[in-house]
Amino acid sequence: MEKIHPLYYHTLGKVITARRKKIGLTQAQMAEAADISTVYYREVEQGVRNPNYSLLILLGKIFKTKYSSIQREIEEEIKNLYGDKY
C-alpha cells in the first residue's frame, strides 16, 4: 500500500475546516454528525490523525457533496501551494 504524504492530511484538515465553517457547524457538531469523538475530529482537522475512508465518505455527505469533490479541492490546494514539489 502506498504511503500518503503528511502534507495531504494537513491540507485535508484545512479543506474540511473551511467547509465546516462555511456551513456554520462547530467541531463538536461535526463530530456528532459523523458519530465520532470531538477529539478525533479535531485531530483530523489539525492533520495529525489519518481518517479512514468511511469517515471521508461521511464527511462528503455532511457537506452535501461527494468525497471526490473534496479530493479535487485538496489536490488543487496542494498544487497552488507547492506546485510540482509535492
TrEMBL record:
Pfam families: HTH_3. SMART domains: HTH_XRE. InterPro entries: Cro/C1-type_HTH (IPR001387). The keyword Nucleotide-binding does not apply. Residues 16-70 form the HTH cro/C1-type domain. Signal peptide: none annotated. Keywords: DNA-binding. PROSITE patterns: HTH_CROC1. This is Helix-turn-helix domain-containing protein.
